[in-house]
Every structure is written in structure tokens, then in C-alpha cells.
Structure prediction request, 102 residues.
Amino acid sequence: MARKDKGQGKGEGKGKARSIVEQARYDVSLPPELLERAKKDLKRTKYLTPLRLSQRYNVTISTARKIIRALEEEGLIVKFGSSRRAPVYVPADMARELPQGL
Prediction:
């Protein structure tokens, strides 16, 4: 029995790449009030992880990573653990007091 050609070969029928306008629509910026709330809560926390932030503020992991990236750029937190899957960050003032090499 011959195979019928359905008009969709390898790679056909898949969605096209998004245009720049479409990508901008999906690019969600970080709400400033959420960042301010994270800065205030930073005084009361011992460590941060993306999962912990996402659960605390009820946001996605990617948004939690954006919060961490913004805090790190401002010098408020420092990466303490070197795991790619679960990076651990501590407040910058607390990092000076912690022993190195853990």
C-alpha cells in the first residue's frame, strides 16, 4: 500500500518564528511595586531562591528570576550557592559574615 502524501513533510506545519512585535507582546516586564516589596522583605530573609520567591509572591519562576536578577544588579543580594538548578542568594550585608566555601 502506498503512503499518501498529506502535504506536510518534515518540519512543515509547525508554527513560524515570532516577529519582533509578537515577541514584545510576550516579554513581560517586572512590576516596580513587586520589586519594591521584594526589597522590603529582603531585610527579614536569610536566603532567596527562585522557587521560594515564586511561592511567596505567587508569580512564575521566570518572574522570580527577573526579581533576583534586578536585586543582584543593584548589589542587594549575592549568589552564595553555585547550583544551576537551585541557585541560592543571600543579602549582601549577610554575605560578609558567612564563611566562604560552603
About this structure: The mean pLDDT is 78.
